[in-house]
Every structure is written in structure tokens, then in C-alpha cells.
């Protein structure tokens, strides 16, 4: 009899998020990991890497635990990764935990890390503009 092998990779329940200057790296915490998910901070491209980028005094990444990636929001100004930072167990179904999302972090992946603060402010909307209904924000008022 042949042993069955699971072709589908297992989901991880916790990830260590490394926030480097040029990329985000997701490292599985619950078990041995062969590969890490690397996300380019300038354009949102992803790839699997076999090791973490080198760390030193000049590259001091922020590190935090996250519970998963919800998805990627792609807008004209760039991509944004949505990650779960906190959760509460609210029950179970067939032995599997059901969680309620209680914390979320938005990780920007756009060229804003390469632009100056003055250039970034050009894209910032004023408070008076934000208070207008969307249909009035589209074009010049008559």
C-alpha cells in the first residue's frame, strides 16, 4: 500500500512579519518553514525565498506576530497588503476554531517609500475635500 502524501501545503496559524526598508517578509512561526513569503514594498510583487535578508545595525527591521494575510488591495496609487494583527476565538465548527478579526494592519506597497514627504503631501487630500460627497469630488464645481 502506498503512503499518501499531501500535495497541498498546510496553512499556518501564526506568522512573524519582518518589516525591512525594501520588503516585508512573512515567516511561519508554527513549525519548520522551508520558504518565506517576500513582498516588495515598492510594487507589491511577491516571491518565495529560502532565507531572511541579512540583518545588521543599519538594517533593523520591525518584527511583529500576525495571524494571516487577508488579501491584497490594488489601487491606482499602489498595492496594500491587509494582515490580521489580532483575533478572538468565538467558537468552533467540526473541531476547527472560528475567529473574529479584532486587529488589522495595512501594509503599503507603493513608490511612496522612494518619494519625499513633500511629494507625498501632493497626494494628500485636504479635510474640506474629504467632507464632500464622492460625486462632488470628481470634477471642478460649476
Task: Quickly count the domains.
Answer: 1
Average pLDDT over all residues? 80
How helix-rich are the residues, as a percent range?
under 10%
Q: What is the CA–CA distance across the termini?
A: 78 Å
Shape: globular
Say how many strands there are. 8
Summarize the structure.
The protein is mainly beta and 142 residues long.
Write a concise keyword list for the protein shown above.
mainly beta; 142 residues; five-stranded antiparallel sheet
Q: Could you describe the 3D structure shown?
A:
By secondary structure, the chain is mostly beta strands. It has one domain (15-137). The chain has three helices and eight strands, in the order E-E-E-E-E-E-E-E-H-H-H. Residues 1-5 have low confidence and may be disordered. One of its GO terms (cellular component) is endoplasmic reticulum. GO terms for molecular function: phosphatidylinositol-4-phosphate phosphatase activity. Keywords: Membrane, Transmembrane, Transmembrane helix. The chain crosses the membrane at residues 65-83.
Topology:
Elements: E1 15-19, E2 23-28, E3 36-40, E4 46-49, E5 62-66, E6 68-75, E7 78-93, E8 96-109, H1 117-122, H2 127-130, H3 134-137
Antiparallel strand pairs: 1-2, 1-5, 2-3, 3-4, 6-7, 7-8
Amino acid at each position: 500500500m502506498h503512503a499518501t502524501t499531501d500535495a497541498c501545503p498546510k496553512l499556518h496559524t501564526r506568522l512573524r512579519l519582518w518589516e525591512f526598508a525594501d520588503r516585508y517578509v512573512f515567516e511561519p512561526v508554527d513549525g519548520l518553514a522551508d520558504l518565506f513569503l517576500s513582498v516588495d514594498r515598492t510594487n507589491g510583487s511577491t516571491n518565495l525565498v529560502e532565507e531572511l535578508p541579512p540583518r545588521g545595525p543599519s538594517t533593523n527591521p520591525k518584527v511583529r506576530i500576525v495571524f494571516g494575510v487577508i488579501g491584497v488591495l490594488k489601487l491606482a496609487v499602489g498595492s496594500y497588503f491587509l494582515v490580521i494583527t489580532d483575533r478572538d476565538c468565538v467558537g468552533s465548527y467540526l473541531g476547527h476554531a472560528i475567529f473574529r478579526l479584532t486587529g488589522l494592519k495595512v501594509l503599503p506597497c507603493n513608490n511612496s517609500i522612494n518619494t519625499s514627504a513633500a511629494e507625498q503631501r501632493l497626494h494628500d487630500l485636504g479635510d474640506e475635500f474629504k467632507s464632500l460627497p464622492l460625486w462632488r469630488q470628481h470634477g471642478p464645481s460649476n
